[in-house]
Amino acid sequence: MRFAIVESGGKQYRAVEGRTIEVDRLPVDTGKKFDIERVLLMADGDDVLVGTPTIGDILVKVTVVDHIRGPKIDRFKYRPKKRIRVRGGHRQQFTRLLVDFIGHPGEERKVEKAEPAPVIVENEAVAEEAPKTKKQAKANPQGEAPKSTKKTSAKASATTKSSSKKTDTKKK
Questions:
Q1: For 50-82, what is each residue's pLDDT tens digit?
Q2: What angle do CA 50, 56, 61 make, to 5 degrees?
Q3: Rounded to an integer, what distance in angstroms lies between the CA atom of residue 151 and that of residue 96?
């Protein structure tokens, strides 16, 4: 697995072939390809090239996948007993880059595709589609849910209580 440490926007990122990295927003359209020029380190197995400060003959070719916004960061200043409440927030804008190639210019090599993380699917949909029993099918031929009787009994008890209060009044 070949990777490189690159610098973009004053920050350093670990770029691995076939994977994406999120850097600060770049003024490049989606789908465009370009090269990252500031490569600080490149490693391919046991071979490691370290720049002083950069490696001049290494290219990192990337493709702009998307422009996204990061999570919202809320800021709230509060000074007790002084009625000072200042609320603000920020969402950082990022550019998602797909690393296509890391190596010398003109070098021909097949890029190894990184395996994505396995997706875990829960069996909720299978449980919802379970067949109904015969009693449920006969009671609800149209598939309607049974009606609840709790509200009607609660209303009936409320009306009996109010009528009992009227009869408790004393006659003079």
A1: 988 999 889 999 999 999 999 999 999 999 999
A2: 95
A3: 54
